[in-house]
Amino acid sequence: MEGTTRTTVATTSLEKDLLVWHWNCNGFTNKRAVWLQHLQQITRRLDVIMIQETHSEERPKIPGYRLNDSPPSKRETSKGKGRGVCTFIRKGITFIEHELLGRSAIEHCAVEIITGKKKESTYLVNAISNPALRPAEIQGTTPQGKQTSRALDALVVCSDLHRPNREWGIP
């Protein structure tokens, strides 16, 4: 994928099905305690948690997970512009952080989860845009067509672009 990458190596790679949850929380800080209580009740621990609309300048934390995020800047949050997205990866899973869109109107974070053999990966993209953005500001920002070091094994895109966009597969 184009742009910067940073590898985070863990002691084990994932050898089973990847369990991913997506949540558009509309404010993470006030809901964190209830969310953590809910996570403790789940039979199988989630491998990846993709959260949108954190509305927080501070980096969220969940015990037992490492964070890949794109928090809204102070400038963006002052008038409700910034939303914030983050992806939590369970500790013990190897992943690589990718920068897909560079400086874009779409807040996003992208990770490559190394599953099983080193040649197999699952790419996860978490993206959101402000509903006030004009359609022209979103066009041409798709992750499709970005080059990777190898062919995609699997791609999961969680997005909330607030309007139809064929490039992102939203009719």
TrEMBL record:
Pfam families recorded: Exo_endo_phos (PF03372)
GO molecular function: catalytic activity
InterPro entries: Endo/exonu/phosph_ase_sf (IPR036691), Endo/exonuclease/phosphatase (IPR005135)
Region: Disordered, residue numbers: 59-81
Record domain Endonuclease/exonuclease/phosphatase: where: 23-126
Protein name: Endonuclease/exonuclease/phosphatase domain-containing protein
Organism: Haemaphysalis longicornis (Bush tick)
